Each structure stands twice: as structure tokens, then as C-alpha cells.
Amino acid sequence: MVENLQDIRASIDMIDDQLLDLICRRMDLSKAVATAKSGGVTYRPGREAEVFLRLAEKAPDLPAGIARNIWRQIMTASSAQQDRSVGVAVLNSALPTASWHFGGQLSLISCNTISACSAAVQDGAAYALVPVSEDAALAAWLMQNQDLHIIAITPFAAVHEDGDGLPPCYVIGRTEADPVRHETTLIACGDGDTARIEACSGRPADALAGYAAPARIAGVIATSPKTD
Q1: Which of 25, 71, 77, 193 has the fewest CB atoms within 10 Å, counting from its CB?
Q2: pLDDT in tens, 185-207
Q3: Is position 2 within any domain?
């Protein structure tokens, strides 16, 4: 017997209530994580990438963007709950991606240039968000600042051309990303007009072979298994 519309809606309401209860439980656990970290780094892009991949593998028939968008907001809320004082320097062209990624949970510092991003980081911003298309200026910045690293690409699915139309961006931070199953090594190289970010699969020990100084490994980031 086909359920009537009222019964179907009642079932949906019940599921919504269960989802809300589970989200509240998850947020409580994130508080416990903050206590266990004892002041450690709250944003772990490697951990997030592993979660995204696990969810995609668990529900292959669910459009990737649905799970990614829901969990993106949950993860950002969890990180903000652990430390809401974190500031993010954002190149203006990256603002749409920054708004999606951080969901208004953290303070976004709008910057007109890479130099302005650099100044904001020097003034205390924990992270910077720069479009992948700005790799020349970014490479030059990172070759001059060895203590900064590319720690993620966002939207994560942008690496296999499924980023909901948002410009893919690199996330820059002071702490290197955690090792994960599927990785790409990014190399800042070149000089002046030839400065650029190049990529190689995995984490090769000789990644800098053939590159001239001041080339450096700019970061090792989590990527989709479709592209690593």
C-alpha cells in the first residue's frame, strides 16, 4: 500500500530530528577533540580529505557534491568551535570559495594582492586562501617564505573537475598537512615571469631533482585517487 503524503512527510521529519541529534552529538565530540589536542592545530585538511573520500566510497550513488557540501559546513563549525579566533587572509578573487569553505564561521580578511595576504599572515592570520590560477605570484611568495606551506586545495573535489563552479584555491598555512593515502607534491619553482607551482604524484624523495634554487617543496596535499 502506497503511503500517503502526510505519512511520508512525518517520516522525513523523524529523519531530520535524528540527523539533528547526531550533529549535536558530533559537535560534542569535537569539543572533546579540542580538549585532547590541548591547544594544537584545529584545521586538519588531511583528516578532512580522508573523511570526504570515505563518505564517497560508502555512498557511491549519492552525488559527491551533496555529502561534500554538508560535511564541509559541519567540519568548519567543528573547527570554529575549537578556536573561533582563527583569521584567514583571502585574495579577493577567492572570496566565493572562502565563503563556501569557511561558511562565515571564521574571520575572513579580504586582500587585493598576494602581498596583502602575506602582510595579513605576518600580522597573525593563521591561513591564506589563494586561487590556483594565481600560481605565479603564490610560487614567488612561498619561495621567499620557507615557513609557509600549501596544505590543501578547496573545494577538495575540484581536483577532479567537480567543484560546483567555485574557483579552486590553495590553502596556505604554517603547519604541513598530515600524510594521507592519496597525495600530490607541489613544487614552487622558477623566477620572475617563470615562477609557478608544479605537481608530481605522491611524495617522491627526489621531488626537487632537476630544479634550481630557490625551488622548494611548497606542500604535499591530499588529492582524489582519480588524479594522484
Answers
A1: 193
A2: 999 999 888 899 999 999 999 99
A3: no
Domain that holds residue 119: 10-32+42-222
Give CA separation, 76 vs 79, 100, 115, 140, 213, in Å. 5, 10, 26, 29, 37
For residues 213 and 206, the answer to whether their CB atoms sit within 8 Å is no
Of 160, 161, 112, which Cα lies nearest the Cα of 134?
112
Give φ, ψ of 116 to 5 degrees: -65, -40
The number of domains in the chain is 1
Is residue 3, in this structure, part of any structural domain at all?
Answer: no
Give per-residue pLDDT as tens, 105-149. Answer: 778 999 999 999 999 999 999 999 999 999 999 999 999 999 999
CA distances from 193 to 135, 189, 210 (A): 11, 11, 19
Q: Which helix (H) or strand (E) holds 186?
A: strand 183-189
- Give kind and range of the element (H or E) at residue 46: helix 45-58
Assigned domain for 131 exists: yes
Tens digits of residue pLDDT in 3-21: 689 999 999 999 999 999 9
- Report yes or no on 21 lying in a domain: yes
- In whole angstroms, give the CA distance from residue 224 to residue 182: 7
